[in-house]
């Protein structure tokens, strides 16, 4: 049989294909099976040759495509998150009379004038000091008869009949007094404590006379002391404050308060709630705010209705690195209770003005990375952030980013720094997600996305 002859099986297959061609014309069923097989063989051969050419030798397309460098992922960075604007603080001052306040240790927050006269209400006219005078009397006495430290008792004073008679004189005038038996003795420190803590007027005159020899000499010394400290708005005509001609301005009284807290003995005495001594007996401090809201001193004074005064000191822990030292004065209050309430409100309003301002929450997206092959990752804030500041101090923010090395989840890629007054807060930025390399197929089919 020659090669042109067909076997019965081939003839049967051909007849079957012809029938299909009649049913489905144009689909190539009528082509001789040997021709179809030959065509398939030629296609396989061509495909094999193409792949052989592609795979053959170094520097082929496949080798290049699979190893060519990729462009860095595209980065998009949004605007820097600043956080909500802090609320403005409002100082609460008395609605009547006059007040002034000074804050030391807070200049970085409150401004360079805070430790001088930071804020005031009412006018700075001179008003009756009442028993605030006794602070001046004590400091003038200690200028002449200094104590070595806060606990030094100093020299001993012996009270005579003239001193004893002062008890009755001031009792008639309605002043505060303490017992002073004839012939009794007391240390200078204890005598000053009796003058300042219960505000005993008879002790103020007796001790100032003892220190200078006469009231005239004391008043001369007091006027020199006032002049030396630049207290031109203050007038003293007697040592107790019972005279309405003993006057001072809010500004001068702030200076007097600072001088008092800087004097170890006076600061210690003014901070004492109560004491008991032979002679005068048990005594309570007229400043009932001691220990309340951080108040540490200093002196009360009043001459009756609408003439209640308080010169006070306080240590305020507001959350800053160091507590603040406050010296304040309230003059011309309606009652002692109303003055106390006003001072508490003032201190509370200072505390409330210091705040931790929220800036950003962990996970906040600030940017992203994307690639041509569809892999993406986010740039997010790695932690919560807040900043401590006063009132509505402006907050600025700076964001820096770096090019990642791995583009893997958790890699640090920059930071944000916020600044408000003296404080800064910095949090890192990190990659959220991982940039996955492209597949080999993507590399082979996207030559234009590959580098040289």
From TrEMBL:
InterPro entries, per the entry: Beta-lactam/transpept-like, Peptidase_S11_N
Domain Peptidase S11 D-alanyl-D-alanine carboxypeptidase A N-terminal: 119-316
Protein name, entry field: D-alanyl-D-alanine carboxypeptidase
GO MF annotations, alphabetized: serine-type D-Ala-D-Ala carboxypeptidase activity
Record's keyword terms, sorted: Carboxypeptidase, Hydrolase, Membrane, Protease, Transmembrane, Transmembrane helix
Presence of the UniProt keyword Transcription regulation in the record: no
A Gene Ontology biological process term: proteolysis
């Amino acid at each position: 049989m020659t090669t042109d002859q067909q076997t019965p099986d081939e003839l049967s297959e051909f007849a079957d294909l012809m029938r299909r061609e009649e049913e489905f014309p144009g689909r190539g069923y009528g082509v001789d099976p040997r021709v179809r097989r030959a065509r398939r063989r030629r296609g396989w051969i061509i495909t094999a040759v193409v792949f052989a050419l592609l795979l053959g030798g170094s520097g082929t397309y496949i080798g290049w495509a699979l190893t060519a460098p990729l462009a860095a992922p595209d980065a998009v960075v949004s605007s820097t998150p600043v956080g909500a604007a802090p609320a403005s603080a409002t100082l609460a001052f008395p609605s009547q009379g006059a007040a002034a306040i000074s804050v030391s240790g807070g200049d970085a927050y409150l401004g360079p004038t805070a430790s001088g006269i930071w804020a005031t209400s009412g006018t700075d006219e001179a008003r009756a000091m009442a028993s605030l005078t006794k602070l001046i009397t004590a400091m003038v006495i200690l200028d002449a008869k200094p104590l070595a430290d806060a606990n030094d008792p100093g020299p001993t004073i012996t009270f005579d009949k003239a001193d004893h008679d002062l008890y009755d004189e001031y009792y008639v005038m309605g002043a505060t007094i303490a017992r002073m038996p004839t012939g009794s003795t007391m240390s200078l420190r204890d005598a000053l404590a009796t003058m300042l803590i219960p505000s005993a007027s008879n002790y103020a005159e007796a001790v100032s006379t003892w220190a200078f020899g006469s009231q005239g000499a004391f008043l001369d010394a007091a006027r020199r002391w006032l002049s030396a400290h630049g207290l031109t708005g203050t007038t003293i005509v007697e040592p107790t404050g019972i005279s309405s001609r003993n006057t001072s301005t809010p500004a001068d009284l702030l200076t007097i308060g600072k001088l008092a807290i800087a004097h170890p003995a006076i600061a210690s005495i003014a901070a004492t709630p109560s004491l008991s001594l032979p002679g005068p007996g048990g005594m309570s401090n007229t400043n009932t705010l001691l220990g309340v809201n951080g108040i540490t001193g200093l002196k009360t004074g009043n001459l009756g209705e609408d003439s209640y005064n308080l010169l006070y000191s306080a240590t305020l822990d507001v959350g800053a690195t160091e507590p603040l030292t406050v010296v304040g004065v309230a003059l011309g209050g309606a009652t002692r209770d109303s003055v106390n309430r006003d001072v508490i409100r003032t201190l509370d309003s200072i505390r409330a003005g210091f705040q931790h301002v929220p800036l950003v929450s962990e996970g906040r997206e600030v940017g992203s990375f994307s690639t041509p092959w569809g892999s993406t990752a986010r740039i997010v804030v790695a932690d919560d952030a807040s900043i401590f500041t006063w009132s509505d101090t402006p907050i600025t923010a700076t964001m820096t980013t770096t090019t990642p090395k791995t583009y893997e989840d958790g890699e640090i890629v920059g930071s944000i720094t916020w600044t408000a007054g003296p404080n800064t807060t910095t949090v890192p930025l990190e990659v959220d997600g991982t940039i996955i390399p492209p597949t080999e197929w993507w590399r082979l089919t996207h030559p234009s996305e590959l580098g040289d």
